[in-house]
Amino acid sequence: MKKLICIAFVFALFYYNQTLAQTNDYYLGVFSNTTKTIKFTIGAYPNSISQSKRNDGVIYSAMRIAIVNNEKAEAIEWSDYKIYILLKDGTLFYNFLTNVSTGDYACKYTVNPGETHLQFVCFEKVFSANDVDKIWLSFSDHQFLSLFLYKDDVQPKSPATNPVAVPNKKQIKK
User: Fold this and answer.
1) Extents of the domains making up the chain
2) Residue 33: CB partners within 8 Å, gap ≥ 6?
3) pLDDT for 56-80, tens place per residue?
4) Cα 103 to the chain's mean position, in Å?
5) What's the rounded Cα separation, in Å, for the pair 28 and 67?
6) How many CB atoms lie within 10 A of CB 132?
């Protein structure tokens, strides 16, 4: 009987951790110039990190980013810009350029006013969302723009009353 109660407790704890106490971490930055001809938001989503194997057998990590261009701004010509990641262990690295010219892994594209572009950026490092400490966007060797950590605490209601989780956005300062 004690064993059954213990198993039920462990199952309940696992269920709570997996469904009731989920958080969605993401990094955001909103950037513009003084004339507002450039105004966009970039989001980096560490929870999307996955590992794959290249044709040469090397394992790499990929992470989803989104670029949202303001509807009144000029088109953004994205050209091999870099996402830098600092891990909690102090390791700093940036994404590599792919040879793809279209699709989710392309490194050069245009984001027209009012549009959103989703893509994956690839890193020659195996890491997970829990390893990430900070993220930056770099347009050149000397210009780094910080992305700020946000958390959505996902607290779903009872499935009978409301099956949709309601996020509670919190900016985390480091």
Assistant:
1) 23-171
2) 39
3) 999 999 999 999 999 999 999 998 8
4) 18
5) 10
6) 20
Structure tokens belonging to residue 141: 């060797």
Of all residues in the chain, what percent carry a pLDDT higher than 70? 74
Q: What is the CA radius of gyration of the chain?
A: 20
pLDDT one-digit tens code per residue, 1-55: 554 443 444 344 444 444 445 678 999 999 998 888 889 999 999 999 999 998 8
Check: CB of residue 138 under 8 Å from CB of residue 31.
no
Q: What is the DSSP letter of 141?
A: T
Q: What is the pTM of this model?
A: 0.75
The rounded distance, in Å, linking the Cα atoms of 47 and 25 is 7
23-171 topology per CATH: Immunoglobulin-like (2.60.40)
Q: For residue 32, what is the enclosing H or E element?
A: strand 22-32
Yes or no: say if 84 and 141 are a contact pair by the CB < 8 Å rule.
no
Give dist(CA 64, CA 28) in Å, integer.
12
CB 44 within 8 A of CB 147: yes
Structure tokens at 69: 């261009």
